[in-house]
Amino acid sequence: RHAELTETLATRYEVEAALFHPTSAVRVSCPITLRYTATDASTDVASLVTKLGLVAPWCFRRALRHAWQRLVRWWLALSPQHFVVASDGTGLGVLRNTGEPIPWDLDIDVHLYAEGPPALPLHAFADWSDNPSLTSQGSAALSPPAP
């Protein structure tokens, strides 16, 4: 039997993932990420990284990686003519860390490309997003200028 990463151990030593033995699975407990996803800006994940110079918590990076994978699968499933290009920190992580986000990255930087007509026209995205800054001037603001 191998050691376990209990919530008490994880919280006391701020450990979210541990490999206790080479033949066992990685043990995961995420109370640290949950604590830093609170609404208090002084203790959120971004503050840990940008103000304190710490890496983002392991569970946060795992969630970021899963979000990236879901986004890519969704985009590629829309059309065989779609492709994805990682850029900035995400691109560096894909190349440097075998698909893992770099430890201090807080977002996903990606370009979604499509050949042919748009899969999702900008006005449809604006209507879907309910973002007032996109819809305040109506769909005409999102249309290309007339020649």
Structure, explained:
With 147 residues, the chain is mostly helical. It is built from seven helices and four strands; from the N terminus they run αββαααβαβαα. Strands 1-2 form a two-stranded antiparallel sheet. The protein has a two-stranded antiparallel sheet with strand order 3-4. β1 (17-18) and β2 form a beta hairpin. It starts with 6 loop residues before the first helix and ends in a 12-residue tail after the last helix.
Radius of gyration: 20 Å
Ranges where pLDDT stays below 50 over 5 or more residues in a row are: 135-147
Major β-sheet annotation: 2 strands, antiparallel
Strand order of the largest sheet: 1-2
Q: Helix content range of the residues, please?
A: 40-55%
Count of DSSP-assigned helices: 7
- Average the pLDDT over all residues and give the rounded result: 75
- State the distance separating the first and last CA atoms: 72 Å
Element-by-element helix/strand order: HEEHHHEHEHH
Number of strands: 4
Strand fraction band? 5-15%
Mass-distribution shape: elongated
Class by helix and strand content? mainly alpha
Helix/strand layout:
Layout: H1 7-13, E1 17-18, E2 27-28, H2 31-35, H3 45-50, H4 58-78, E3 82-86, H5 88-96, E4 110-114, H6 122-129, H7 132-135
Antiparallel strand pairs: 1-2, 3-4
